[in-house]
Amino acid sequence: MNSLRVAVLQMVSGDDLDHNLAQAEALLRQAAAEGAELALLPEYFYLMPVDERARVALAAPVDDHPLLAWVQGLARELGVWILAGTLPLASHEPGKMHNSSLLIDPQGQLASRYDKLHLFGFCTGQEQYDEAATMTPGREVVSHPLPWGVLRLGICYDLRFPELFRLGPAPDFIALPAAFTHTTGLAHWTLLLRARAVENLAFVFASAQGGHHPGGRRTFGHSMIIDPWGRILAQVEEGQGMAIATLDLAAQRTVRSQLPALTHRKIAVGP
User: Fold this and answer.
1) Is residue 269 part of a domain?
2) Rounded to an integer, what distance in angstroms lies between the CA atom of residue 206 and that of residue 199?
3) Residue 41 has what DSSP assignment?
């Protein structure tokens, strides 16, 4: 296959679950109507509450999760691959959850699950975040073979750890649903995304939260699709919206042939 049409969806989720789901559905339907074959929701698309424990209260097993079933139904109806940003999955630790990215195929089947490995911690005196207080970290690096190539899964803070995307065979695509803070995003978001694309000669799909949320939190947005040369193909700056692009997969193969950096690596990356 020589092309793939991808949509990254940006939201400004709040503390109203039903409203958030309605907004997510509208964006997914728009993506499908514009020919997207793969659509990516942002991290926490379902809820951005004042109290992080509100998300933990929604955690459920992956085989019996009403929010996952809802996404599966839409994927089946629309006939597209959907990356369900993140959903809260049950953890063995009381009072905690896994923050998990779930890939659904066009038949509505769960194709892959990735539990966020790196848990965000940030404190400036004015802003403070500690995901480890309510989350259990994952243990595995996850790739999934799509019809167009291999997709490596990551979530938000994972972006800062390049070794996650260097383990094993090089991915063709990298997915990064996120809720980057405005402070860190303004400084580093685009820089890090473009670096991950260039390092791996891979397309990067970044679907983000982008705006003001309950409790005063502000996210950076700038959802984007980046090509293997580091060029931004499509972008949403702030607020709800969609960035969509048709990828030239033949051009990626040409770039990897002309600049075979992936075959020139001398240092093995391990756990």
Assistant:
1) no
2) 16
3) P
Give the closest residue to 199 by CA, choosing from 156, 161, 157, 230.
230
What range does the domain containing 183 cover?
Answer: 3-263
pTM over 0.70: yes
In a domain, 257, yes or no: yes
CA torsion through residues 48, 117, 68, 65, sign:
negative
Q: Count the domains in the chain.
A: 1
Whole-angstrom Cα distance, residue 110 to residue 63? Answer: 9
To which H or E segment does residue 30 belong? helix 17-33
Q: Where in the sequence numbering do the catalytic residues fall? A: 43, 116, 156
* Relative orientation angle of helices 17-33 and 66-78, to the nearest 10 degrees: 20
Which pLDDT score, from 0 to 100, does residue 35 have? 99
Tens-place pLDDT, residues 99-133: 999 999 999 999 999 999 999 887 777 777 789 99
Cα-based distances in Å from 55 to 95, 107, 239: 10, 27, 22
Average model confidence (pLDDT) across the chain: 96
Contacts of 194 (CB under 8 A, 6+ apart): 204, 226, 230, 232
* CATH number of the domain bearing residue 192: 3.60.110.10
Residues recorded for the chain: 271
Q: What is the 3-state secondary structure (H, E, C) of 242-271?
A: EEEEEEEHHHHHHHHHHCCHHHCCCCCCCC
Judge whether 268 lies within some domain: no
Residue tagged 């580093």 (tokens): 188
pLDDT, tens only, 151-176: 999 999 999 999 999 999 999 999 99
